[in-house]
């Protein structure tokens, strides 16, 4: 195949033929910076476990790690950590954090052997707490490919391109006899991560063998396309590992870039719909406490599922430009993600429950591999399983990195919203800085302030804005003057000449709405946020004398100090705005994600259900809505807070008659 000229606009790379052009293009790592509450999240990561995991978890993250050349852990956990630490370091432009990533990057690059393979190459005898075998497995290398891609994006270090070219030639030669599931089954389900980097390198180098490798890799990957379109994968419990699913959801659409057949796009659309139907939960994820496990709100959802599903959505959004994928990304980021780590980002929860009223060490009804001596819902560094200790760090940094995109028509796109600043090139190479000033998702208003360099008077470019599906009618103004209104579920493109000081203002009016779930329960939602019953918390730090080597020296349990067994009142949709009173704090907290700092609350009426009690340190079976003659208490005022601000919660409520 003849090499074709790559389209580059100041380092923004469009797909090279014969790949299908994408509507949106990645910006380099470091072009987008967090502001406001989002910056606070990143700083808490820096000062918490993300910035200190080498000290907190030395058994795995020390010099003994195989990805530093040692005889310790050879597998995924070290790369997982760096996959979150590296983007955090470059987004914050933090020299200390960057220096922590350098030994890992340098060792990976310098470890490449003559045959093209790289990384650990020797297995060691079993040692408790670390994974010292399967050193040649394809899977952990896929995580390192993601790290190297990000590192190149931030530094343009050409050694990365040389390493990847040689490694992908090695893969092409070896995969026929050493397939993806040669050592473990994980790579077969997660090869979409590998495939993404193959296409990324092809766009930079034009090496035609990479397309041959992509076809081979797709054939060896689990067939998500057929499973979503024709099978019962998502309606059958325990059919697939929950994190494999979160990572694999993107593979058909990644491959779609090379073979733009509608079946690949349609399979992902149907996959998300079926996942919601059979396993969906109010926080935006699904019952997956190790394997897929239905939609009962007491089933667990893994922290790795949250960050990997976010990355999958971030990966398919620029390929498709679909509003629903951005909506789903915000749903997971603003609801599921913040509640699974403590405020100081030093402890995390392996599984969260949509209805969670006791965070205790207790065996629960989780899937066959999903009970780790009862520690799964406790907050700790190593409770549950240590993969999340290592993998949780990519969530907020990669979310930040995917707030903005360059566009195929030489403009900029704000497809996901949070306080931030972007520096990018538009038009024929003019640099523009845009500050996104907002308290979204807690407030409706978003302001974009443009700045050009002093030598540039004006520049024409298209500005793409997403109008979420939940928004009935958005309003857009420029410099205080109304421009237009727009219905939800679309991308609005504003093409004009822009000058320094221009302010584009987007208002996304948020209304109360409900969704139906397991046993006809309902969730209360407003904008991108799900709301949950405010339950007072009693935290208790536990010294682990039973198995500290496995689950950590300490962990936290949380018990309720207020009642939780409330039903909401049945009503028509037209009554919602009157029955649910929204109250906002005058001052936006620097850190919004806890019980006391909730920036917005909703007051409504509910009734206690005396027969709905604890079972197995969980809510008992949720009463079906609506049961005729169900015994309830009198109407009481109850308070709802954003789901992401809760630790204990009811977010899927039974409904009772007034």
UniProtKB/TrEMBL annotation:
Domain Non-reducing end beta-L-arabinofuranosidase-like GH127 catalytic: 75-400
GO molecular function, one term: hydrolase activity
Occurrences of domain Non-reducing end beta-L-arabinofuranosidase-like GH127 middle (ranges): 414-510
Organism from which the protein derives: Xanthocytophaga flava
PANTHER family in the cross-refs: PROLINE-TRNA LIGASE (DUF1680)
Superkingdom of origin: Bacteria
Record keyword Hydrolase present: yes
Name listed for the protein in its UniProt record: Glycoside hydrolase family 127 protein
Keywords carried by this UniProt record: Hydrolase
GO biological process, one term: carbohydrate metabolic process
